[in-house]
Amino acid sequence: MMTANKRIRILLADDEPNILQFLELGLLSEGYEVQTAQNGREALEKVEAFKPHVAILDVMMPEMNGFEVCHTLKESSEKIAVIMLTAKDEVGDRVKGLSLGADDYMAKPFEFEELLARIQARLRNQFPDLLGSVVYGPFRIDDRKNEILYQERVLELSPTEYELLKYLVMNHGAVLSKSLILDRVWGYDFGGENNIVEVYIRSLREKLNDKEHRLIRTLRGAGYRVDLP
Questions:
Q1: At CB < 8 A and 24+ separation, what contacts does 36-43 make?
Q2: What is the CATH number of domain 9-130?
């Protein structure tokens, strides 16, 4: 399990109680401080006292929608990272949210592990001093040093190997397709061949002494999955 810094505060705003409870329990189990709101006005009221580092906002909320809340937050403080959630995966909604200052955008349904990765990305970019090293089983990831330790041994990694291994470890237990890995590690505009993923996976296995592929598993036709002890 991840060991997160308990100083990191996250505000969840969604009018669907089941989603709100699921996300709250998941983030609490990861070590974050969490408060929730079921409408836009309540979210803004809680920001005043709670002062979250990250606000996760559903677009379709009563009182004030997520777009309005995002706009208000970004006008008052650039220090709040905003991740928008929506049931729609429409380009127009995404453009509108980003134009209002949202830092990221996720369409429902989504995997909780992906949300965790998006939160970590926002924290690295906007609150790097809050993040110490993060532990996942035998791995310790330290973004301040751009360093990953495996069983307390520092791995000698290229920048791309570092990003790839971090993405795999942070999403441990989830099956990650080659196309998803390319999008997240190399970027949407990557124009090379997707066999580059196989090349880098092979290199990581050598550096991890994972000769039998028990750590980074290949699921034929599906992708890769990191299994942690």
A1: 36/11, 36/12, 37/11, 37/12, 37/13, 38/13, 38/14, 38/62, 39/13, 39/15, 39/63, 39/64, 40/13, 40/64, 40/65, 40/66, 40/68, 40/69, 42/13, 43/11, 43/13, 43/69
A2: 3.40.50.2300
